[in-house]
Amino acid sequence: MSRHKEILPLLIKKISQEHVNSGILLGGSVQGGYERPDSDIDVLVLLEGDGEIRTDQSQKIEDIKTHIVYLPVKALPEARQKQPVLFYLLSVCQIIHDPCGIARQYQEMARQYFRDNPDMARDWAEQTEKIKHQKLKSR
Predict the structure, then answer these.
(1) Residues 9-23, buried b or exposed e (16+ Cβ, 10 A)?
(2) DSSP secondary structure code for residue 74 in this structure
(3) Helix axes 84-92, 102-116, angle to 10 degrees
(4) For residues 89 and 55, is the Cβ–Cβ distance under 8 A?
(5) CATH architecture for the domain at 3-137
(6) How far is residue 82's CA from residue 53's CA, in Å, rounded to a whole number?
(7) pLDDT tens across 94-107, in order?
(8) What is the pLDDT of residues 36-79, one digit of tens each?
(9) pTM summary value
């Protein structure tokens, strides 16, 4: 098991203490199992209610960087229109903490959207696969 996966419980604990009813999803290279020692941990945090979509890249757990995107569920329509990659990531990320079912509920909504729009799903899958290959080449 990589150090990245070993410290996930610490990251989950930290986020869930700050945002009690949140759903936490893991993405990126750690989810895919191709992280490097210098990789960050990509996390999508679904929050109840409204607010702004925000990103935090300032936190470290031990010596590993994190990339956390906070996505209020009322901002999902905006994310689908203005930041579609977030909406796509919601559909494919791994749920790692979801005590209230918020991640499961909205992940299913995102998955249904991409089942209804297979061309868009294919385009995003191709883009993320290209990124994965670029990262694997640079290992």
Answers:
(1) eebbeebbeeeeebb
(2) G
(3) 110
(4) no
(5) 2-Layer Sandwich (3.30)
(6) 11
(7) 999 999 999 999 99
(8) 888 999 999 999 999 999 999 988 999 999 999 999 999 999 88
(9) 0.91
